[in-house]
Amino acid sequence: MSKINIKPCITNKPKIIHIGLGAFHRAHQALYTSELIDKEKTLWSISSINLFGSVELIKELRQQDNVYAVLERGSNREQVKISKSITHSLHPLLDGREKVLETLADVNTAIVSLTITEKGYCIEPSSGTLDTNNPLIQDDLKSAQSPKSAIGYIVEALRLRKERQRPPFTVMSCDNIQSNGDVARKAILGYAKLVDSELYEWIQDHVTFPNTMVDRIVPAVTPETLAYIESKLGYADHCAIACEPFRQWVIEDNFVNGRPNWNEVGAEFVEDVIPYEQMKLRMLNGSHSFLSYLGYLSGYKYISEVIDDKEFLKATLDFMLAEQAPTLNLPSEVNIEQYAKLLIERFSNNKLQHATSQIATDGSHKLPPRFCESLIYNRSKRIQTHWLELGIAAWMNYVIGTDDDGNSIEVNDPLSPIFDSIKSDCKSSRDSALALINLECIFNESITNDTELVNNIIEKFISIQESGAKATLYRMANKIDLNQ
Ligand code: NAI
Ligand code: CS2
């Protein structure tokens, strides 16, 4: 059969411009917005942009009128939904930089939303401030009117709006970053200050940056997923995506130029998102990273396989409840034991093939919010940290070592060149571990100056190198009594 023939019902100019048309956006914000369009016939539609990556997805999407299917796949139920909120899709390589900038600067644009991955903000992960040594930022600073980075594009678009006396837009980050709105603000203002001090002040006074907590497990699409969705639809959809049925979106209600009523389709607008973000990042994403490094090294390809191993399950529950939960300032309605149980159920969904190697990418940006902040808190309160230490030791082995069977690992991280030089220059495991812990952009002084903690991490790293990740985790898990 031929491709999707459902035309989007919205024809007005999009008021939301989204940067980062990846898997997550298609299954989360775009789907919420599509449901709102069905419910309210709202005028809020989306123009989605990829600044980086392949242009193929954009070409395919345009051929389908930007309409695609989302398969919500639980262990026991599944449902196909059709998303039609995206009305335009752009890529600078197809449309030119000018067109992208003009779209952002358009008078209709009210919200610029982002899922550009943690590294897209060009920040130093440990401090959350603009990394002026980032190669994209260095390039953009040389010619701010022809940007390459998302930060450079947004600032140039805001400059055009200011010059043309147009209203500002809201910048809404939907990435997994602690205080994602505040971080976007710091990165954008940090860059604007270097470019134009008046513009810096205009942005500071006019633009808002709501924090958001976003949640839905959306693994990278595979040919098998597309074939399965095709069998359900009866036609090929090259832009289809599969995800879990669960979804959550908590948004700080701080929009400078209007917003859709996403609350009508399940999102929540609140005054303070930070407790929700922190809980999700430490409990869910922290466990994901823990399971991905230890699971990958132990030979597990998917998260559902790792959590199916009883020792890993036991370790993860203890990691969540004994080492992450105590650090949280919990929203009043949350029962943390139930939340942990729900997370385990979600991780166990074997209909989703969520690769450990996918979650293991960009660890240099993921470690601070997922492991380091809890580590520092727990040390200051004398709370146990041995799973956090093991998670960091497993990450170290992942970036410079081999898996338990001695296979080399393809590491995908902005710091990969640094990991390679540590691997070739350091003479002993201890030296390599110390070189990694001394990376200031990941680990701050509270960690590096804590000799006992550093020794604990190194001891676990050496144990993983000598007896394997699985054996090390099993040995530690055997000592836990969950009934205590
Ligand atoms: P993806 O790999 O499908 O898409 C990544 C997107 O980021 C692409 O649109 C790409 O163009 C863009 N990008 C990459 N590097 C960039 C850079 N330096 N500057 C600007 N744009 C850049 O990944 P996916 O699944 O869409 O995830 C993206 C982000 O969404 C994650 O990093 C996370 O922060 C957030 N997220 C993802 C969830 C998931 O389960 N996939 C769930 C919750 C949040
Ligand atoms: C994952 C997240 O890739 C990762 O780092 O931990 O993308 C995770 O799937 C989402 O945050 C779930 O909401």
TrEMBL record:
InterPro entries linked: 6-PGluconate_DH-like_C_sf, 6PGD_dom2, Mannitol_DH, Mannitol_DH/Oxidoreductase, Mannitol_DH_C, Mannitol_DH_CS, Mannitol_DH_N, NAD(P)-bd_dom_sf
Limits of the Mannitol dehydrogenase C-terminal domain: 272-463
The keyword Oxidoreductase appears for this protein: yes
Pfam families named among the record's database cross-references: Mannitol_dh, Mannitol_dh_C
Domain Mannitol dehydrogenase N-terminal: 15-263
Matching PROSITE patterns: MANNITOL_DHGENASE
Keywords: NAD, Oxidoreductase
Keyword S-adenosyl-L-methionine tagged: no
Record-given protein name: D-mannonate oxidoreductase
Originating organism: Vibrio hyugaensis
